[in-house]
Amino acid sequence: GLFVTDYFTRTPRKLSPFRSFASIELFHFHIPEDTVIAVWNLITFKEQGGTFGDQCPDRSITVYFRSGAPSVINPLHTHFPRDTAVPGSFALTLTWTLPNRTTGVFNVTSPLPGDWFLAAHLPKDEGKISVKGLYEECQYLFQPQLIVQRLVNIAVLYPGFVTEQSMAPHNRSSLYKVFVPSYTSRVLVEVLQCRGAEGCPLRLRVRAKAPPLHNSTALDCREHAPCQLALDLPFWQHWYYVLVEKHPGVLGPVSFQVTVQLTDCSRPSLARPPFLPSSASMNMPHSFGSAGGLALGDSPPPTSPNGTKHSVPIPTSERCWPIRPTLRNELDTFSVHFYIFFGPNVSVPPDRPAVFVINLLPVLDSGGVLNLELRLNVSSLCGENVTVFGCLNHEVPLTSGDNTSVTCETESLAGFLLSVNASASLSRLRIPYPQTGSWYLSLRSLCATEHGFEPCANVTAEVYLRAYLSPCINDCGIYGQCKLLRTNNYLYAACECKAGWNGWGCTDNAEAFSYGFQLLSTLLLCLSNVMFVPPVAIAVRSHYLLEAAVYIFTMFFSTFYHACDQPGIVVFCIMEYDVLQFCDFLGSLMSVWVTVIAMARLQPVVLYLLGAMLLSMALQMDRHGLWNLLGPSLFALGIMAIAWTARTIRRRHCYPPTWKRWAFYLCPGALIAAAAVLLYAFVETEENYFYIHSIWHLLIAGSVGFLLPPRAKPSGRLGPLPRRKGCGYQLCVNEQEELGLVDPTSINSICTS
Question: Are 63 and 122 in contact (CB under 8 A)?
Fold first, then answer.
């Protein structure tokens, strides 16, 4: 055949250590139909400070692959919530082959067409809290590239018609495809009139959605005559690929005919006629609203175009039950309810299943959680030991001919089983990141006996059915936050847990903080701000009223900010979180600013206003940036150094003048402040945050108490200054004139020189 190669790439993204699914990087690809091979080229490189990160440590990178929806991953081996089904995915770990670059390759032969998702992350780190901009951070960038090779002009088989083929000696196989519409209960592929040097040296392989693989459903035509391969319960609205290949060692040409027959369960006693659009192909099933299933009888054999007739056996046990649709009601993103007509209570008769369909939109609905809930009305059982079984299958309903079977799986289908009875009347199922398309729910009622389950007699069970799509499982509970994430044009939701809780729904409490621990951490962070009371008292006693007001402001907002910033349930917010955070950061930096200005013995109010404006601007730009916060502090220290130097030069003596001031106040205060900065920048982690940050509060407040200068003492009563001769000025103050009581020309002014 003719091959066409397509190439897709994505922009490199920075990877993060894994904490939850919200910390992974998700990449979305689309593989076209008729693809025979897909090759992912996984490129990873390091960066540090805008250059290659040769000195960065090697950290393994894990990549997950899944078709149809994002991968549901669990690298930390946490517990999933109850009643949660975990779909499988393939994982690949990349190791480093070069100091700053590595490349991995992942090949998929005959991949399923449609959406493919790649998820990548770094291993979990120790949770160190680093100051932004303090040092150049190592960045690990990941860029996937996709190369696909697909076949064009694949021969299409039409149901009921015979296609003749002659395979040349140098050809090893022939590939065909046939479209299977809805309400098809059986696909029969047959090889006719096979002629070769050694009988019929052919092997027949069939696979849905993509070209067959070595482990696909196969049949050896040398061992079976006639060469017929039947597939029951095929996927609806998909292409089926038929591969006819020679046995190894066969050198001569082989001629044969291939035909496909489809059994249409929506038409009683009829096979699907060729080229006739049935009700199923037009999405208008004749069985909708009928009283029950329709058994298929023997049908007349179809005739080939050249008049050759051949029999196609059609089983008489195939049934096509009516499928009840659901009404889709979209409330919000990933918040969709599926309502059943004349529901939500549904009746399950004893002689036939009740089948419902839930349609999930492509791409849009795969980023949430599909929830299903069954609740049995025990009063409807009339005292019988009835169990209602539900099978949820993707793309085709599973209605077994064996009424006593309670499995939801076949050789080619895998489904989810739910059951309710009088003792367990409630059953739930959650599927995170479900594959899109049609999901079919089949409900059957069976009675438990000594010999197993048997069909019930004259008992119609009533079941409350609820199906809906939600962003997260139980909204992540009280110890998690459901986040709506986006990668390019794809939206998905994930939980971000707190207070030591983990898991897909924040339900794993193996490392959770106890209530006492949460209360202790909150009290430590809040009450440690009481250490600002001594600096406030010292400032008031020294007549530094403006500084005292700033310290009170800092103490108040730091206390309530940390009361609102707690990860657990011991939380108390008096304002919005963003307002509290801004005021806390502003108060902390303003405390440093006014303390340094006071140490410089400068009193102009313009310096305080300048500091408030500069710090507000810096915090608005980046509250966690190092230089945005350190710059104004260094500027204040520069002003203090200039003032101290000027006084030292003018007085010809070191300023401050006494050694006691240096030994008992300035040096201890500077050492305490330096210790606080070192703890904040290099020691603080997520695990020790509550007590290291409390120590930071104590040290900063204590350093302010040491560094704040004493009140300036008057140097004695000064005599009157001599009046300048010549050019001078007078300041006239007229109280009544300022009050505007009388004419200013009629009042004597009080003048002071």
Answer: no
DSSP string, 611-667: HHHHHHHHHHH-TTBHHHHHHHHHHHHHHHHHHHHHHHHHHTS-SS--HHHIIIIIH
SS (H, E, C) 407-449: CCCCCCCCCEEEEECCCCCEEEEEEECCCCEEEEEEEEEEEEE
Question: How confident is the model at residue 405, as a pLDDT?
Answer: 60
CA 113 to chain centre: 23
Q: Is the dihedral of CA 506, 507, 510, 515 positive or negative?
A: positive
Report the SS3 class of residue 535.
Answer: helix
At 531, which amino acid appears?
Answer: M
Tokens of 466: 């609820």
Q: In a 3-state reduction of DSSP, which class is residue 124?
A: coil
Alpha carbons 415 and 391: distance in angstroms, whole number? 6
On whether the 155-264 domain is CATH 2.60.120.380, my answer is: yes
C-alpha to C-alpha distance for 226 and 283, rounded to whole angstroms: 34
Q: Find out whether 190 and 226 touch, Cβ atoms under 8 Å.
A: yes
Q: Strand, coil or helix: what is 187? A: strand
Domain 336-471 top-level CATH class:
mainly beta
Same CATH fold, 336-471 and 2-152?
A: yes
Measuring CA to CA, which residue among 546, 386, 544, 526 is closest to residue 458? 386
**Residue recorded with tokens 């119609």:** 460
Q: Do 133 and 16 form a contact (C-beta atoms < 8 A)?
A: no
CA distances from 498 to 77, 476, 477, 693 (A): 17, 10, 11, 18
Residues facing 347 on adjacent strands: 462
- Rounded Cα distance, 18 and 4, in Å: 38
Cα–Cα dist 705/707, whole Å: 6
In contact, 448 and 385? CB cutoff 8 Å: yes
CA distance 211 to 557: 65
**Which pLDDT does position 311 carry in this prediction?**
33
Where is 695: in which H helix or E strand? helix 689-707
pLDDT recorded at residue 741? 36
Q: Which two tokens stand for residue 670?
A: 């500077």
Q: How many angstroms separate the Cα of 148 from the Cα of each of 63, 110, 111, 406, 448?
A: 19, 10, 10, 41, 52
Say how far apart CA 474 and CA 81 lie, in whole Å: 9
- The residue among 202, 200, 204, 179 whose CA lies nearest residue 190 is 204
Q: Which amino acid does the sequence have at 470?
A: S
Q: Which two tokens stand for residue 211?
A: 């070209």
- In the chain (753 residues long), the average pLDDT of successive 10-residue segments reads 90 92 93 95 89 85 94 92 91 88 92 94 80 76 95 92 87 91 91 81 92 90 87 91 88 88 72 42 30 30 35 42 88 90 85 90 91 90 84 83 66 86 91 93 86 81 93 92 89 92 91 91 93 93 91 95 89 93 92 88 81 88 75 81 86 82 87 88 84 91 88 54 45 39 39 36
Identify which of 132, 129, 135, 127 has the alpha carbon closest to the alpha carbon of residue 53.
Answer: 135
Extents of the domains making up the chain: 2-152, 155-264, 336-471, 515-707
How many Å apart are CA 8 and CA 516, to the nearest integer?
53
For 171, 192, 202, 225, the CA distances from 253, given in Å and listed in that order, are: 9, 16, 11, 20
Instruction: Give the closest residue to 506 by CA, choosing from 16, 20, 86.
Output: 20
Amino acid, single-letter form, for residue 181:
P
pLDDT value, residue 36: 94
DSSP symbol at 718: P
Rounded Cα–Cα distance for residues 124 and 60 (Å): 10
Both tokens assigned to 13: 């993204």
Q: Cα–Cα distance between 536 and 528 in angstroms, integer?
A: 15
CB 189 within 8 A of CB 229: yes
Residue 489 class from Cβ within 10 Å (0-12 exposed, 13-18 middle, 19+ buried)? exposed
Q: 2-152 architecture in CATH?
A: Sandwich (2.60)
